[in-house]
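User: Please predict the structure of the protein below. I'd like the answer in structure-token form so I can feed it into my own downstream comparison script.

Assistant: Understood. Taking the following sequence of 217 residues as input:
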Amino acid sequence: MEELDNSTAQDPPIWAIFGDLMSGLVGVFVLLLIWALGFQLELSQSLEQEVEKRQAEEQRRMALEQALADPLASGRVTLRDGRIGISGSVLFSLNSDELQPEGRELLQSLVAPLKVYLGERDQLLMVSGFTDDLPIQKGNNRYADNWALSAERALTVTRVLIEEGMPPAMIFAAAFGDQQPVDSNQSAEGRSKNRRVEMAPVPKAKASQFTAAFNNG
């Protein structure tokens, strides 16, 4: 009887076990609370950075659209899917790659906003030349075909943009000839739309792939 009493006396009281359990639960709760607060803080900072990023992006886009406002309103320039299209008649006379004064003035107005837009996005500017499907006029020995004409026009625009302050490392030229028309070549109006130069921001990786394929081709 005495031995049973001694064994019972040595067992820890139930309240002590309960207290240890509660202390452990409180510790876990505190850790979870700290983790939740840290996650909320990180999420809040991420959201704030994303908002700032979007605001900066919007400001760059607005600056570019503002620079394009007048030519867009007059129809000299189009803005479609992020590509700036400039009518060939604004830049060049028919079957020529010599830039007209109006075209140079337009390009001058685009350099500053394009530099900011490209620099902040770490992108390059692809300048693409296009023509209608009419063959080069007889007697014009300067261009072998529409591919050559579109290439010279793209290079002319590229060189002028560089002369006006565009860093050479941020720009490259491409030629598409009479491929990828934006309108029908069955009418004078449609052919006029197809004779154009486009400028499009592209990621550097995509630009490298394009130029590699172009050079290998």
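That's the full token string. The first helix runs from residue 2 to 10.
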